[in-house]
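Worked Example 4.2. Consider the chain below.
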Amino acid sequence: MRIIHYEDIVEKVSKACQDVNFDIGSDVFDSFKKSLETETSENGKYILEQLIENAVIAKEERVPMCQDTGVAVLIVELGQDCHIVGGSLYSAINEGVVKGYSDGFLRHSIVGNPISRTTSTTYNTPAVIHIELLPGDQLILNLSAKGAGSENMSSMKMLKPSDGLQGVKDFIIETVRIAGPNACPPLIVGVGIGGNFERCAYLAKKSLFRPIGFRNISKEISTLEKDLIEEINKLGIGPQGMGGNTTALDVKIEMEACHIASLPVAINLNCHASRHKKIIM
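Applying the procedure from the previous section yields the following structure tokens:
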């Protein structure tokens, strides 16, 4: 049995909440530079240059790359031989988010009442926490700061099995087309296929934690990801909706078994600020 202390989780999460907002990460930054080489629109090139400059300033000056510093979303890989002492895992994560967002002077974007919008939690909590129990004694915290612009343009649909692969592709492409500039492209398109109503949405969210360029291990799904990148970039939306052939930096798909009468599909869009960090304890 491996012991991990509550206070250590708080400190790790606090630091990660700041780092994830200040440092875009090499996978996204390199994707900006690669897209600049292939972008055909002058407006698109200009926007990509601005995104690169903004990312450099954010990292060097330790300031947020975007005013929307997001909802803290964590996928926790908890080893079954790992024991948290000093408090609960949920409390440690939320205390870390409070500390990180406060110490980093990051915007608090959570309202306590989604209907009246009158109460604020003040501290950008509660975090959205998913836990996967796994063999071993490691604790891995996958953190994302998920902005609302792209989240609001996400979509989920219970397709019919007869809709098939073409129906899935049409729904994904149509979701991106409708999102247009509102999701702050160039996008990372996360897709969940299968499971059930709630599970496919989780799969779409989980896919976004995979670094840009890392394909699904299934050859079938990997090919579909690459086909969709090509089709989405033909839409002409371009960086920040200003036109061009860089509408999506990547498409990531996770797929699971589903009921014989169902074909659930969820699309979780991420803006160009694809902020994700992995904490291994």
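The mean pLDDT is 96. The chain has two domains: 2-20+65-146, 149-274. Compare this with Example 4.1 before moving on.
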